[in-house]
Amino acid sequence: MVSRRRKKKKWIKQLTEILIIIFRVKKPQFCGFFSFVASNYYFKKKIFFIYVNQDEKRLTIRVDHNIFKVVMSKMILYLFYFFSISTLLAAQSGSNRTDTNIVTVRSAISLAVQQNPALRILKAEIDKKRGELKSNSGLVDPVISYGREGIGNSSFTSYDEQRIGITQEIEFPTKTSTLNKSINTAIESLELEYKNKTLLLREEIKKLYSELQYGLEMLHLAENEFQISQQLLEAVNLKYTSGEATKTELLKAKIQADEARNSISEATNNMHRSRYSLFNVIGLETSQQKYSIKFPDTLYYEAIEISQDDILSSFVSMPGVLAKMKSIESAKNYREFAGNSFYPNFSLSLFGQDMGSGFKSFGFEVGFSVPLWFSMNQNGKIEEATANIVASEEKYREELLLMKKEVEIAWHGYEAANENIGRFIRGILSDSEELLRLTTEGYQLGEIDFLNLLEAQRTYLSSSKRYYGYLLDYQHRLIELERFSDREFLYNE
Q1: What are the φ/ψ torsions at residue 49 (nearest 5 degrees)?
Q2: How many C-beta atoms surround the C-beta of residue 116 within 10 A?
């Protein structure tokens, strides 16, 4: 320890000789001083005096090269450590940061689970119940007391007895255990409700994402329709100029072009509504809601085999139904706790006694509560708990009926959507594609004029719009069935 201090003092002494600045002036005089502070371990605050000497003809700086080498090597080493750690932390934080410029269905679900306000509120409710469980020990804070008895009228210091004691109150054990059971089952109910809300959130996000993709497809088709209407308008205008088309045909082409322009505006508006509905459900921060965000997942058709029996029999084990069952169990446990409120609470006091010759004696006191006002206190709790059981049972019944209705609607909706999309793919869509192909070939061979080609293109675009409408409905029905199945049918990668 002494050698360290000596070494430190030696460094300070050498540092005072690092810098001497001399200027040539008429007479020597004191000019000022500087305070030098460094963060290195070997540096301490030191005052360097700067004086002026007229005998010196040049600027002189004297540096101890040994000190300079040591200081520079340590500074370089510290800078290396600093930049290495900073780079490592920046890389780690960058790897943990979600890239919000590209939002897939999976990343949207992951973001929503982390940031959705409803889920975060429910998570806080679970933590609140866990805190309540931890605080329900059946013990209250002990009371430390001091007292005197037989104090005389003449002086406060005269007394017959003084005592110092500690008192502890204890609840009847079954009260604590039954209340803990009620809280535990309430926590299980909330956790199941959290899982149920997560499934509902996943369903909502997938639906909104598919609606956004539908909006993007509609915008793309509207832009193509506008280009076709512009080409049609130019072709009719040329025919009208040459006298081959009537003014009625020209006006009709103009109306179609204006309607196509309106379709672009409407499709753009619907697309933005879907975007911000998705952002809102995700809980995406306002600073992250950018126009540059890309949505790579697209609408697609996939024939999926689903067992009707598995779907229709699964609603009784849905997390929402199980959560209501746990709520009934929690209410019954609380009813048991309310019944145990008739049992007494205990109190135990230990105290030292001073009869005038010091605390040479001790005493104790035991007591218990008497439910004298049971008609107002305990009976009221029991009635409240009984009513809570009835309400919980009705909520369970309501949830069961709701799940039955939703699973039936989801299944029959899926059957209808599957038939519609199948017929459209096998019939109308394939026919419109064939019409476009034949018309294009005929135009290339000179057998069909340009107007008929444009009309065939518009027919194909119209069929494509209806196709995406059926496809969106098909995906929605599949997404609804996912909640009643143990697997995901769409956007599962």
Answers
A1: -85, 135
A2: 23
pLDDT single digits (tens) 405-457: 888 888 998 888 888 888 888 777 777 778 878 877 776 676 777 777 777 77
- Strand, coil or helix: 301: coil
The pair of three-digit structure tokens given for residue 484, joined into one six-digit string: 């009643």
Q: Which two tokens stand for residue 3?
A: 């050698």
Which residues, at least 6 apart from 398, have a Cβ–Cβ distance to it below 8 Å?
none
The pTM is what? Answer: 0.66
């890389």: which residue's tokens? 91
Q: What CA–CA distances, in Å, run from 107 to 113, 143, 172, 202?
A: 10, 55, 51, 11
Instruction: Tell me the domain boundaries of the chain.
Output: 2-96, 110-136+193-326+397-482
Residue 474 tokens read as 């098909």
In the chain, helix, strand, coil percent, each to 5? 65, 10, 25
Taking the C-alpha atoms of 421, 422, 428 and 434 in order, what is their torsion angle to the nearest 10 degrees? 120
Mean per-residue pLDDT, 222-235: 84
Quick count: other Cβ atoms within 10 Å of Cβ 252? 15
SS3 184: helix
> What architecture does CATH give domain 110-136+193-326+397-482?
Up-down Bundle (1.20)
| Structure-model confidence comparison of residues 44 and 263, the more confident one | 263
| 317's tokens | 């084990």
Q: What is the average pLDDT score of the chain?
A: 77
